[in-house]
TrEMBL record:
Species assigned in the record: Lithocarpus litseifolius
Name of this chain's protein: 3-hydroxyisobutyrate dehydrogenase-like 2, mitochondrial
SUPFAM superfamilies linked: 6-phosphogluconate dehydrogenase C-terminal domain-like, NAD(P)-binding Rossmann-fold domains
Keyword rRNA-binding annotated: no
Coiled-coil ranges (or none): none
MF terms in GO: NAD binding; NADP binding; oxidoreductase activity, acting on the CH-OH group of donors, NAD or NADP as acceptor
Length: 310
């Protein structure tokens, strides 16, 4: 596979070797875009037989036997997994990424995870002359497929700049500041998205109860002040009861929890009172309690419908 060309050597499809961990709805679409752009990509999957694994291999991706082996053969390793404990395991386990990284290689964690964990990974990477960037994304499955994700990056500014050729294939990157700032930005994003999804759900349920044509309401208000990216992404899906996931509802519970559970995290300086986000978290938890945690976040409307006897 040729020699490694880590930071600060320029990133090019012919020389830069990409590693990927996490091939769910989002991760598989993102990895696929990098392959289409001509990059050589290796990936690790806990379940190598899953369809997305076979699909990536058919596009030329190579399956690695462990995170450590993946790290040994790559310059930049992306992770897109479920929860902070998954990130911790992949990075810090005895056969995790840190045990195999070559000097100056870069971990880019696109999982929505905890800012404190992002800072911890950054420090651990620096100790072995490597780098870490927290770069959670927003835009769902459609944004991942079309390369239109909002990428929220924290870490070293020069490293984030260096990663631009890869980020540009996936979407639009904004550098938010030091390690952890990308994750904090994503939590802010989820607070805003959650409130939008709740307003959209309640507006549609109200319209139906009032005897309106819900599709007509959607067309009538989308270009006014009620219009939003959330409405464009999810309005028609809600009306058509298409709850296939871009992001799982259970992940939104996790993300909102990182915003509202600050006291439990022992960081008294940074307590923020977020009554709307707390309510949203409870309503998304309602989806999980109803057995719908693996549906898309647009399924929030089902909780409002159930509260209204539907």
């Amino acid at each position: 596979m040729g020699t490694l060309t880590p930071f600060p050597n320029p990133i090019t499809p012919s020389q830069t070797r990409i590693g990927w961990i996490g091939i769910g709805v989002m991760g598989a679409a993102m990895a696929s875009r990098l392959l289409s752009a001509g990059y050589s990509l290796s990936f690790y999957a806990r379940t190598p037989s899953k369809p997305s694994s076979l699909s990536l291999q058919s596009q030329g991706a190579v399956l690695a036997s462990s995170p450590r082996d993946l790290a040994r053969s790559c310059d930049v390793i992306f992770t897109m997994v479920g929860h902070p404990p998954d990130v911790r395991q992949i990075v810090f386990d005895s056969d995790g990424l840190l045990s195999g990284l070559n000097p100056n290689s870069v971990i880019v964690d696109t999982t929505s995870s905890h800012p404190a964990l992002a800072r911890e990974i950054f420090s651990a990477a620096r100790k072995i002359d490597c780098w870490a960037v927290d770069a959670p994304v927003s835009g769902g499955d459609v944004g991942a497929r079309d390369g239109k994700l909002a990428i929220l990056a924290g870490g070293d500014g020069e490293v984030v700049k260096w990663l631009a050729p890869l980020f540009d294939i996936l979407g639009k990157v904004t550098y938010m500041g030091q390690a952890g700032c990308g994750q904090s930005c994503k939590i802010g994003n989820q607070i805003i998205v959650g409130a939008n999804l709740l307003g959209l759900s309640e507006g549609l349920v109200f319209a139906e109860k009032a005897g309106l044509d819900v599709g007509q309401l959607f067309e009538a208000v989308r270009s006014g002040a009620a219009g939003s990216m959330v409405m464009e992404l999810f309005g028609e899906r809600m009306i058509g009861r298409d709850f296939r996931p871009g992001g799982f509802a259970e992940y939104h519970v996790k993300d909102l929890g990182m915003g509202v559970d600050v006291v439990e995290q022992g960081d008294d300086e940074k307590v923020v009172v977020l009554p709307g986000a707390a309510l949203c978290k409870q309503l998304f938890s309602g989806m999980v309690a109803n057995g719908d945690g693996k549906l898309g976040t647009q399924g929030l409307i089902t909780v409002i419908q159930r509260l209204n006897g539907k």
